[in-house]
Specification:
The protein is built from no helices and 11 strands. By secondary structure, the chain is an all-beta fold. β4 and β5 form a beta hairpin.
Length: 122
């Protein structure tokens, strides 16, 4: 089992920045690819960004490319999502997820955090 706890969400004005963190515990963090997904009210959960176990490969949704950066610190068992130039359409609950072989598909991920709310005001 892997336990994931997100933090760092909040209310920010359009154009602002936030950094989300996801602390993992349980099994060896380095064994897992990590990802961020988000879910806006009335919408399906969607992929935001993922990072391989080594940090050597990252993937982004087109909607966040160039504005968001995913990173990880394996020594701290933590994955981050730096979000710049935030837009009202980025408003959602953001979830951290872990998978041994996951990439960008929701169904690939076995472990999920409880989510953290990000609200971007216009």
């Amino acid at each position: 089992q892997v336990q994931l706890v997100e933090s760092g969400g909040g209310l920010v004005q359009a154009g602002g920045s936030l950094r989300l963190s996801c602390a993992a515990s349980g099994r060896t963090f380095m064994n897992y690819n990590m990802a961020w997904f988000r879910q806006a009210p009335g919408k399906e959960r969607e992929f935001v960004a993922s990072i391989s176990w080594s940090g050597g490969n990252t993937y982004y949704a087109d909607s966040v490319k160039g504005r968001f950066t995913i990173s990880r610190d394996n020594a701290k068992s933590t994955v981050y999502l730096r979000m710049n130039s935030l837009k009202p359409e980025d408003t959602a609950v953001y979830y951290c997820a872990a998978a041994m072989y996951g990439n960008i598909q929701l169904y690939e991920y076995d472990y999920w955090g409880q989510g953290t709310q990000v609200t971007v005001s216009s």
